[in-house]
Amino acid sequence: MQTDMTAGKPMKMVLGFTIPVFLGNVFQQLYSMADAVIVGKFVGTGGLAAVGATGTINFLIIGFVLGITAGFAVLTSQKFGAGRMNEMRKTVGNAAILSAVITIVLTAVSMLGMHWLLVFMNTPEDIFDGAYGYIMIICGGIFTQVLYNLVASILRALGNSRTPLYFLILAAGLNIVLDLVFIIVFHFGAPGAAWATVISQGVSGVLCLIYIRKCVPELRMEREDWRFDPGIAGKQIRVGIPMGLQYSITAIGTMMVQSSLNMLGSGAVAAFTAGSKIDNVFTQAFVALGTTMSTYNAQNIGARQLERVRKGFRSADVIGCIYAVAVGFILFFAGKYFAYLFISDNAETVIPMVDIYLQCEGMFMIPLYVVNCYRNGFQGMGYGLLPMLSGVAELIGRGVMAVVAAHEKSYRMACMASPFAWIVATALLFVLYFYVMKDMKKKLCL
Protein backbone atom coordinates (compact mmCIF):
# COMPACT_ATOMS: atom_id res chain seq x y z
CA MET A 1 0.00 0.00 0.00
CA GLN A 2 1.42 3.35 -1.10
CA THR A 3 1.17 6.40 1.18
CA ASP A 4 0.91 10.04 0.20
CA MET A 5 2.94 11.86 2.88
CA THR A 6 2.02 15.33 1.63
CA ALA A 7 -1.24 15.32 3.63
CA GLY A 8 -2.19 14.40 7.20
CA LYS A 9 -0.59 15.12 10.58
CA PRO A 10 3.23 15.07 10.31
CA MET A 11 3.69 13.31 13.68
CA LYS A 12 1.34 10.50 12.65
CA MET A 13 2.99 10.20 9.24
CA VAL A 14 6.53 10.14 10.63
CA LEU A 15 5.75 7.64 13.38
CA GLY A 16 3.61 5.40 11.16
CA PHE A 17 6.30 5.18 8.49
CA THR A 18 9.20 4.83 10.94
CA ILE A 19 7.92 1.80 12.88
CA PRO A 20 7.90 -0.66 9.94
CA VAL A 21 11.27 0.66 8.72
CA PHE A 22 12.68 0.26 12.24
CA LEU A 23 11.43 -3.31 12.49
CA GLY A 24 12.83 -4.03 9.04
CA ASN A 25 16.21 -2.61 10.00
CA VAL A 26 16.21 -4.72 13.19
CA PHE A 27 15.55 -7.85 11.20
CA GLN A 28 18.27 -6.85 8.76
CA GLN A 29 20.61 -6.53 11.74
CA LEU A 30 19.54 -10.02 12.77
CA TYR A 31 21.41 -11.26 9.72
CA SER A 32 24.73 -10.16 11.16
CA MET A 33 23.67 -10.80 14.77
CA ALA A 34 22.70 -14.39 13.95
CA ASP A 35 26.08 -14.78 12.29
CA ALA A 36 27.82 -13.47 15.41
CA VAL A 37 25.75 -15.50 17.89
CA ILE A 38 26.04 -18.81 16.06
CA VAL A 39 29.69 -18.33 15.09
CA GLY A 40 30.57 -17.19 18.63
CA LYS A 41 28.81 -20.17 20.24
CA PHE A 42 29.75 -22.96 17.81
CA VAL A 43 33.05 -21.80 16.30
CA GLY A 44 34.40 -19.84 19.29
CA THR A 45 35.80 -16.42 20.11
CA GLY A 46 38.30 -16.75 17.27
CA GLY A 47 35.49 -17.24 14.77
CA LEU A 48 33.58 -14.29 16.24
CA ALA A 49 36.70 -12.15 15.94
CA ALA A 50 37.13 -13.27 12.31
CA VAL A 51 33.63 -12.06 11.48
CA GLY A 52 34.15 -8.88 13.53
CA ALA A 53 37.48 -8.08 11.86
CA THR A 54 35.62 -7.66 8.57
CA GLY A 55 32.73 -5.70 10.07
CA THR A 56 33.98 -2.27 9.03
CA ILE A 57 34.86 -3.51 5.52
CA ASN A 58 31.40 -5.02 5.26
CA PHE A 59 29.93 -1.68 6.33
CA LEU A 60 32.09 0.12 3.77
CA ILE A 61 30.64 -2.00 0.96
CA ILE A 62 27.07 -2.45 2.13
CA GLY A 63 26.87 1.13 3.41
CA PHE A 64 27.77 2.40 -0.06
CA VAL A 65 25.04 0.17 -1.53
CA LEU A 66 22.48 1.43 1.02
CA GLY A 67 23.36 5.05 0.38
CA ILE A 68 23.44 4.96 -3.38
CA THR A 69 20.21 2.97 -3.80
CA ALA A 70 18.41 5.26 -1.35
CA GLY A 71 19.79 8.25 -3.23
CA PHE A 72 18.57 6.94 -6.58
CA ALA A 73 15.06 6.63 -5.09
CA VAL A 74 14.92 10.26 -3.86
CA LEU A 75 13.95 11.49 -7.35
CA THR A 76 11.35 8.71 -7.54
CA SER A 77 9.82 9.95 -4.30
CA GLN A 78 9.80 13.56 -5.48
CA LYS A 79 8.02 12.61 -8.72
CA PHE A 80 5.50 10.55 -6.76
CA GLY A 81 4.83 13.48 -4.42
CA ALA A 82 4.30 15.74 -7.44
CA GLY A 83 1.90 13.21 -9.02
CA ARG A 84 4.05 12.73 -12.16
CA MET A 85 3.70 8.97 -12.54
CA ASN A 86 5.15 8.66 -16.06
CA GLU A 87 8.30 10.48 -15.02
CA MET A 88 8.42 8.43 -11.79
CA ARG A 89 8.57 5.15 -13.72
CA LYS A 90 11.45 6.46 -15.83
CA THR A 91 13.41 7.21 -12.66
CA VAL A 92 12.93 3.58 -11.60
CA GLY A 93 14.24 2.26 -14.92
CA ASN A 94 17.29 4.51 -14.79
CA ALA A 95 17.95 3.55 -11.16
CA ALA A 96 18.00 -0.12 -12.17
CA ILE A 97 20.48 0.51 -14.99
CA LEU A 98 22.80 2.57 -12.79
CA SER A 99 22.61 -0.03 -10.00
CA ALA A 100 23.59 -2.85 -12.36
CA VAL A 101 26.70 -0.96 -13.51
CA ILE A 102 27.70 -0.11 -9.95
CA THR A 103 27.21 -3.74 -8.85
CA ILE A 104 29.69 -5.00 -11.45
CA VAL A 105 32.32 -2.39 -10.61
CA LEU A 106 31.94 -2.71 -6.83
CA THR A 107 32.13 -6.51 -6.90
CA ALA A 108 35.28 -6.55 -9.03
CA VAL A 109 37.11 -3.85 -7.05
CA SER A 110 36.26 -5.31 -3.62
CA MET A 111 37.27 -8.87 -4.48
CA LEU A 112 40.52 -7.87 -6.15
CA GLY A 113 41.61 -5.59 -3.29
CA MET A 114 40.40 -7.55 -0.27
CA HIS A 115 43.60 -9.43 0.67
CA TRP A 116 45.63 -6.22 0.59
CA LEU A 117 43.00 -4.39 2.66
CA LEU A 118 42.97 -7.01 5.42
CA VAL A 119 46.77 -6.87 5.60
CA PHE A 120 46.68 -3.06 5.68
CA MET A 121 44.24 -3.16 8.60
CA ASN A 122 46.60 -5.29 10.72
CA THR A 123 44.18 -8.24 10.84
CA PRO A 124 45.59 -10.70 13.42
CA GLU A 125 47.22 -13.76 11.86
CA ASP A 126 45.20 -16.22 13.94
CA ILE A 127 41.92 -15.02 12.38
CA PHE A 128 43.13 -13.86 8.95
CA ASP A 129 42.02 -16.92 6.94
CA GLY A 130 38.56 -16.99 8.50
CA ALA A 131 38.11 -13.26 7.97
CA TYR A 132 39.22 -13.47 4.34
CA GLY A 133 36.94 -16.42 3.57
CA TYR A 134 33.96 -14.67 5.17
CA ILE A 135 34.31 -11.28 3.48
CA MET A 136 35.07 -12.69 0.01
CA ILE A 137 31.72 -14.48 -0.02
CA ILE A 138 30.00 -11.26 1.06
CA CYS A 139 31.72 -9.43 -1.79
CA GLY A 140 30.68 -12.07 -4.30
CA GLY A 141 27.07 -11.59 -3.17
CA ILE A 142 26.98 -7.79 -3.46
CA PHE A 143 24.36 -8.13 -6.20
CA THR A 144 21.87 -9.53 -3.65
CA GLN A 145 22.38 -6.50 -1.42
CA VAL A 146 21.87 -4.13 -4.36
CA LEU A 147 18.73 -5.97 -5.49
CA TYR A 148 16.99 -5.88 -2.11
CA ASN A 149 17.98 -2.35 -1.15
CA LEU A 150 17.03 -0.89 -4.53
CA VAL A 151 13.55 -2.43 -4.67
CA ALA A 152 12.98 -1.68 -0.96
CA SER A 153 14.04 1.96 -1.50
CA ILE A 154 11.65 2.28 -4.44
CA LEU A 155 8.76 0.90 -2.39
CA ARG A 156 9.57 3.28 0.47
CA ALA A 157 9.78 6.17 -2.00
CA LEU A 158 6.11 5.51 -2.70
CA GLY A 159 5.33 5.54 1.02
CA ASN A 160 5.23 1.73 1.43
CA SER A 161 7.48 0.78 4.36
CA ARG A 162 5.60 -2.37 5.37
CA THR A 163 6.11 -4.73 2.42
CA PRO A 164 9.94 -4.72 2.59
CA LEU A 165 9.56 -5.52 6.31
CA TYR A 166 7.45 -8.62 5.70
CA PHE A 167 9.90 -10.12 3.23
CA LEU A 168 12.86 -9.20 5.43
CA ILE A 169 11.31 -11.01 8.41
CA LEU A 170 10.99 -14.12 6.27
CA ALA A 171 14.57 -13.79 5.04
CA ALA A 172 15.90 -13.25 8.59
CA GLY A 173 14.32 -16.53 9.66
CA LEU A 174 15.84 -18.25 6.64
CA ASN A 175 19.23 -16.77 7.52
CA ILE A 176 19.15 -18.27 11.00
CA VAL A 177 18.20 -21.71 9.65
CA LEU A 178 20.97 -21.59 7.05
CA ASP A 179 23.48 -20.40 9.67
CA LEU A 180 22.71 -23.45 11.79
CA VAL A 181 22.85 -25.83 8.84
CA PHE A 182 26.07 -24.48 7.31
CA ILE A 183 27.95 -24.06 10.61
CA ILE A 184 26.71 -26.91 12.80
CA VAL A 185 25.85 -29.58 10.22
CA PHE A 186 28.35 -28.87 7.43
CA HIS A 187 31.07 -27.27 9.62
CA PHE A 188 31.75 -24.41 7.17
CA GLY A 189 32.88 -22.13 10.01
CA ALA A 190 32.68 -18.34 9.57
CA PRO A 191 32.31 -18.56 5.74
CA GLY A 192 29.11 -20.57 6.31
CA ALA A 193 27.58 -17.52 7.98
CA ALA A 194 28.46 -15.45 4.93
CA TRP A 195 26.75 -17.91 2.60
CA ALA A 196 23.63 -17.78 4.77
CA THR A 197 23.58 -13.98 4.64
CA VAL A 198 23.98 -13.77 0.87
CA ILE A 199 21.32 -16.37 0.12
CA SER A 200 18.81 -14.87 2.56
CA GLN A 201 19.33 -11.33 1.26
CA GLY A 202 18.82 -12.56 -2.29
CA VAL A 203 15.53 -14.23 -1.34
CA SER A 204 14.16 -11.03 0.22
CA GLY A 205 15.15 -9.03 -2.86
CA VAL A 206 13.47 -11.44 -5.29
CA LEU A 207 10.29 -11.47 -3.21
CA CYS A 208 10.12 -7.65 -3.21
CA LEU A 209 10.62 -7.67 -6.97
CA ILE A 210 7.78 -10.15 -7.47
CA TYR A 211 5.53 -8.06 -5.24
CA ILE A 212 6.23 -4.90 -7.26
CA ARG A 213 5.47 -6.67 -10.51
CA LYS A 214 2.17 -8.13 -9.30
CA CYS A 215 0.81 -5.64 -6.77
CA VAL A 216 2.07 -2.12 -7.54
CA PRO A 217 0.29 -0.79 -10.65
CA GLU A 218 2.15 2.52 -10.41
CA LEU A 219 5.36 0.60 -11.18
CA ARG A 220 4.18 -1.46 -14.13
CA MET A 221 6.99 -0.58 -16.47
CA GLU A 222 6.72 -0.08 -20.24
CA ARG A 223 9.55 -0.53 -22.71
CA GLU A 224 10.25 3.22 -22.90
CA ASP A 225 10.65 3.37 -19.11
CA TRP A 226 13.81 1.27 -19.43
CA ARG A 227 15.51 3.67 -21.83
CA PHE A 228 18.54 5.32 -20.34
CA ASP A 229 17.91 9.04 -19.84
CA PRO A 230 21.11 11.06 -19.19
CA GLY A 231 19.13 13.90 -17.59
CA ILE A 232 17.40 11.64 -15.07
CA ALA A 233 20.56 9.63 -14.45
CA GLY A 234 22.53 12.82 -13.82
CA LYS A 235 20.08 13.95 -11.14
CA GLN A 236 20.14 10.51 -9.51
CA ILE A 237 23.93 10.40 -9.53
CA ARG A 238 24.17 13.87 -7.99
CA VAL A 239 22.19 12.64 -4.99
CA GLY A 240 23.07 8.92 -4.96
CA ILE A 241 26.85 9.10 -5.20
CA PRO A 242 27.23 11.59 -2.31
CA MET A 243 24.86 9.46 -0.19
CA GLY A 244 26.92 6.34 -0.96
CA LEU A 245 30.18 8.16 -0.30
CA GLN A 246 28.77 9.48 2.95
CA TYR A 247 28.41 5.91 4.24
CA SER A 248 31.84 5.06 2.84
CA ILE A 249 33.47 8.04 4.53
CA THR A 250 31.91 6.94 7.82
CA ALA A 251 33.14 3.40 7.19
CA ILE A 252 36.68 4.58 6.46
CA GLY A 253 36.75 6.28 9.86
CA THR A 254 35.43 3.09 11.45
CA MET A 255 38.12 1.11 9.63
CA MET A 256 40.73 3.34 11.24
CA VAL A 257 39.23 2.45 14.62
CA GLN A 258 39.18 -1.24 13.64
CA SER A 259 42.86 -1.05 12.73
CA SER A 260 43.71 0.36 16.17
CA LEU A 261 41.62 -2.40 17.76
CA ASN A 262 43.39 -5.10 15.78
CA MET A 263 46.63 -3.99 17.43
CA LEU A 264 45.07 -4.87 20.81
CA GLY A 265 44.46 -8.52 19.88
CA SER A 266 41.54 -10.79 19.02
CA GLY A 267 39.96 -10.42 22.49
CA ALA A 268 39.45 -6.68 22.01
CA VAL A 269 38.12 -7.31 18.49
CA ALA A 270 35.64 -9.89 19.82
CA ALA A 271 34.42 -7.54 22.58
CA PHE A 272 34.05 -4.59 20.20
CA THR A 273 32.20 -6.86 17.74
CA ALA A 274 29.74 -8.10 20.37
CA GLY A 275 29.16 -4.56 21.65
CA SER A 276 28.57 -3.16 18.18
CA LYS A 277 26.06 -5.92 17.36
CA ILE A 278 24.06 -5.06 20.49
CA ASP A 279 24.33 -1.34 19.89
CA ASN A 280 23.32 -1.63 16.24
CA VAL A 281 20.04 -3.38 17.03
CA PHE A 282 18.94 -0.73 19.53
CA THR A 283 19.99 2.22 17.35
CA GLN A 284 18.18 1.10 14.21
CA ALA A 285 15.34 3.42 15.24
CA PHE A 286 17.59 6.36 14.37
CA VAL A 287 18.40 4.87 10.98
CA ALA A 288 14.66 4.33 10.44
CA LEU A 289 13.90 7.95 11.33
CA GLY A 290 16.51 9.02 8.79
CA THR A 291 14.90 6.86 6.10
CA THR A 292 11.50 8.27 7.03
CA MET A 293 12.64 11.88 6.83
CA SER A 294 14.28 11.27 3.45
CA THR A 295 11.01 9.96 1.99
CA TYR A 296 8.79 12.45 3.85
CA ASN A 297 10.88 15.43 2.80
CA ALA A 298 11.25 14.24 -0.80
CA GLN A 299 7.50 13.89 -1.27
CA ASN A 300 6.76 17.25 0.37
CA ILE A 301 9.45 19.10 -1.56
CA GLY A 302 7.99 17.56 -4.73
CA ALA A 303 4.62 19.00 -3.61
CA ARG A 304 6.31 22.34 -2.70
CA GLN A 305 5.30 22.17 0.96
CA LEU A 306 8.32 23.44 2.88
CA GLU A 307 6.37 24.19 6.07
CA ARG A 308 5.41 20.49 6.32
CA VAL A 309 9.11 19.69 6.13
CA ARG A 310 9.76 21.91 9.17
CA LYS A 311 6.93 20.26 11.06
CA GLY A 312 8.26 16.85 10.08
CA PHE A 313 11.67 17.63 11.56
CA ARG A 314 10.04 18.84 14.79
CA SER A 315 7.98 15.64 15.04
CA ALA A 316 11.06 13.51 14.44
CA ASP A 317 12.93 15.45 17.16
CA VAL A 318 10.30 14.55 19.76
CA ILE A 319 10.30 10.86 18.79
CA GLY A 320 14.09 10.62 18.41
CA CYS A 321 15.06 12.34 21.66
CA ILE A 322 12.63 10.35 23.81
CA TYR A 323 13.89 7.11 22.29
CA ALA A 324 17.54 8.21 22.61
CA VAL A 325 17.23 8.78 26.37
CA ALA A 326 15.47 5.45 26.90
CA VAL A 327 17.87 3.33 24.84
CA GLY A 328 20.91 5.12 26.26
CA PHE A 329 19.79 4.16 29.76
CA ILE A 330 19.38 0.51 28.74
CA LEU A 331 22.76 0.28 27.02
CA PHE A 332 24.62 2.01 29.84
CA PHE A 333 23.24 -0.06 32.69
CA ALA A 334 22.16 -3.38 31.18
CA GLY A 335 23.67 -3.70 27.72
CA LYS A 336 26.49 -6.01 28.76
CA TYR A 337 24.10 -8.82 29.65
CA PHE A 338 23.16 -9.23 25.99
CA ALA A 339 26.81 -10.11 25.32
CA TYR A 340 26.28 -13.57 26.81
CA LEU A 341 24.43 -14.40 23.58
CA PHE A 342 27.73 -14.13 21.72
CA ILE A 343 30.45 -15.19 24.13
CA SER A 344 31.21 -18.86 24.73
CA ASP A 345 34.76 -18.58 26.12
CA ASN A 346 36.94 -15.95 27.83
CA ALA A 347 33.76 -14.33 29.18
CA GLU A 348 35.52 -12.98 32.26
CA THR A 349 37.81 -10.94 29.99
CA VAL A 350 35.50 -10.05 27.12
CA ILE A 351 32.27 -9.09 28.96
CA PRO A 352 33.82 -6.17 30.92
CA MET A 353 35.20 -4.81 27.64
CA VAL A 354 31.74 -5.05 26.07
CA ASP A 355 30.41 -3.07 29.04
CA ILE A 356 32.96 -0.30 28.46
CA TYR A 357 31.94 -0.06 24.81
CA LEU A 358 28.20 0.14 25.55
CA GLN A 359 28.64 2.72 28.32
CA CYS A 360 30.65 4.95 25.98
CA GLU A 361 28.00 4.65 23.26
CA GLY A 362 24.97 4.89 25.54
CA MET A 363 25.82 8.38 26.78
CA PHE A 364 25.66 9.89 23.30
CA MET A 365 22.46 8.63 21.69
CA ILE A 366 20.96 12.08 21.01
CA PRO A 367 23.85 13.17 18.73
CA LEU A 368 23.51 9.85 16.90
CA TYR A 369 19.82 10.58 16.33
CA VAL A 370 20.62 14.03 14.93
CA VAL A 371 23.23 12.65 12.53
CA ASN A 372 20.83 10.09 11.07
CA CYS A 373 17.69 12.21 10.93
CA TYR A 374 19.00 15.51 9.63
CA ARG A 375 21.55 14.18 7.19
CA ASN A 376 19.01 11.90 5.50
CA GLY A 377 16.36 14.58 5.72
CA PHE A 378 18.53 17.03 3.79
CA GLN A 379 19.25 14.38 1.17
CA GLY A 380 15.54 13.82 0.69
CA MET A 381 15.26 17.52 -0.10
CA GLY A 382 17.71 17.01 -2.97
CA TYR A 383 20.95 18.09 -1.28
CA GLY A 384 23.70 15.59 -1.96
CA LEU A 385 27.04 17.25 -1.22
CA LEU A 386 26.16 19.38 1.80
CA PRO A 387 25.12 16.48 4.08
CA MET A 388 28.28 14.66 3.03
CA LEU A 389 30.24 17.36 4.84
CA SER A 390 28.93 15.93 8.11
CA GLY A 391 30.36 12.58 7.00
CA VAL A 392 33.72 14.28 6.52
CA ALA A 393 33.37 15.75 10.01
CA GLU A 394 32.71 12.24 11.35
CA LEU A 395 35.77 10.93 9.52
CA ILE A 396 37.96 13.59 11.12
CA GLY A 397 36.51 12.92 14.57
CA ARG A 398 36.93 9.15 14.32
CA GLY A 399 40.36 9.52 12.77
CA VAL A 400 41.65 11.70 15.61
CA MET A 401 40.39 9.29 18.26
CA ALA A 402 41.69 6.25 16.35
CA VAL A 403 45.17 7.73 16.20
CA VAL A 404 45.06 8.52 19.92
CA ALA A 405 43.78 5.00 20.69
CA ALA A 406 46.52 3.40 18.61
CA HIS A 407 49.22 5.57 20.19
CA GLU A 408 48.01 4.94 23.72
CA LYS A 409 46.95 1.34 22.99
CA SER A 410 43.70 2.29 24.71
CA TYR A 411 40.54 0.26 24.24
CA ARG A 412 38.39 2.94 25.90
CA MET A 413 39.67 5.59 23.48
CA ALA A 414 38.73 3.32 20.57
CA CYS A 415 35.22 3.01 22.05
CA MET A 416 34.90 6.80 22.27
CA ALA A 417 35.75 7.32 18.59
CA SER A 418 32.16 7.10 17.32
CA PRO A 419 30.59 9.29 20.05
CA PHE A 420 33.20 11.98 19.42
CA ALA A 421 32.48 11.78 15.68
CA TRP A 422 28.71 12.14 16.28
CA ILE A 423 29.21 15.27 18.38
CA VAL A 424 31.36 16.94 15.71
CA ALA A 425 28.88 16.04 12.93
CA THR A 426 25.88 17.22 14.99
CA ALA A 427 27.37 20.68 15.47
CA LEU A 428 27.81 21.03 11.70
CA LEU A 429 24.31 19.72 10.91
CA PHE A 430 22.64 22.32 13.14
CA VAL A 431 24.35 25.05 11.14
CA LEU A 432 23.40 23.38 7.85
CA TYR A 433 19.72 23.17 8.88
CA PHE A 434 19.27 26.94 8.80
CA TYR A 435 21.16 27.24 5.52
CA VAL A 436 19.18 24.46 3.83
CA MET A 437 15.80 25.84 4.89
CA LYS A 438 16.68 29.34 3.71
CA ASP A 439 18.08 28.05 0.42
CA MET A 440 15.09 25.78 -0.25
CA LYS A 441 12.70 28.66 0.42
CA LYS A 442 14.43 30.62 -2.34
CA LYS A 443 14.37 27.65 -4.74
CA LEU A 444 10.65 27.11 -4.23
CA CYS A 445 10.02 30.89 -4.40
CA LEU A 446 7.99 30.75 -1.17
UniProtKB/TrEMBL annotation:
It comes from the Bacteria. Keywords: Cell membrane, Membrane, Transmembrane, Transmembrane helix, Transport. The keyword Lyase does not apply. The chain crosses the membrane at residues 46-75, 96-119, 131-151, 163-186, 192-212, 318-343, 349-371, 383-405, 411-436. InterPro entries: MATE_fam (IPR002528), MdtK-like (IPR048279), Membrane_Transporter-Flippase (IPR052031). It is found in: Cell membrane. Its main location: membrane. PANTHER family: MULTIDRUG RESISTANCE PROTEIN YPNP-RELATED. This is MATE family efflux transporter. It comes from Blautia wexlerae.
